[in-house]
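Minutes, methods subgroup
Present: GH (chair), OT, SY

1. OT presented the first of two proteins processed in the latest run. Sequence and structure tokens recorded below as shown on screen.
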Amino acid sequence: MNVLNALKSILFYPMMWLRGVFLLVGKILQGFFLLGLILVLFIAQGQEYFWTLVLMFAGGSFTFFLLTHFYDQILLRLNPTGKDLILVQ
């Protein structure tokens, strides 16, 4: 086992262990930001801070979407076993 495989294993197994929690928290936060965006669109129309809130909530939701998506991509690239890995969401 070479050094690169050892480093991959050190990163991969804790990340795989925390995957369920990370995806659950990420999806919940993504949903809260999306719900906040919908509420802002209906409640804060005409306010001076309207576009700031819209961009903040839309950006937050999209950021958590990207984090949950790329977390799985990182796991697939770090896979030290050499076998095909299928990650079901």
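2. SY then presented the second protein from the same run.
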Amino acid sequence: MEQTIQNQKKWSVGGGSWVTADVYGEPDAPGLVVVPGAMSDAHAWRHVATAVDAWPSVTVVNRRGRTPSGPLTDGYSLRTEVEDLGLILDECAGTQALFGWSYGGLIALLAANDSSLRQVIAYEPVIRPFGSHVLPDLKAAEEKADWEATAEIVNRRIAGLDAAQVETLRADRQGWADLQRLSRPAHAELAALNAAPPPHELARRADRADLIVGQCNHGTAPYGTSFDDVRQRVARATRTEVHVLPGQGHMAHLQAPAELGHLLNGLATAR
């Protein structure tokens, strides 16, 4: 049965910031916690969340830097994200599984070094070095508040879309406006990702780790090669399974949310 959103939770994370989450299903029942990555927010994951029914609840985190959550704040780092997530996991007692996408996948795997978890799942997690070649241009765009340039840099020079694909995105005025809004933390997040030394192990305290890669990115840069770097670090620490989502790339939550939800449901029964 498709889950529906029941309420929104909010946590103070210190430094004048806060984090919110959309909760689907039974709001007080332990379930799946979802961590979106860069250029994404909780709203973008609503179709995946409603397709997942193997857990009694699905809590989709709206990381700081995204409305209605609070600002990144000074001193923002990858560690900031891990500590935010740790607080949420402490509050969501009995979390059965943690799932992260892209940058959120790395955050989830790092959180599983700090917190004991039954299962952690990551879709194409990224790790340093990733996208470092565009940091100067992202910084320049941020200083000018040129979010159009930021959205184009991320989509063309990191995601690898060609000019025609970017123009297709731009033709959807509301969609492009959303991408510009979501691009505002992009420089800070990418800088934080590349400032943190890669850990020797990931998911050290998880009983099981499931890593997902889209078939279109398997073994290819930038997402597939970063995925392979992460896989080597996870395999040292815990029981690990790798899964390939047929016909998909990095944006499966937007392009194939039902298929991704189906895969997540299957992983719940596999544990």
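Chair's summary of item 2: The radius of gyration is 17 Å.
Next meeting: continue with the remaining queue.
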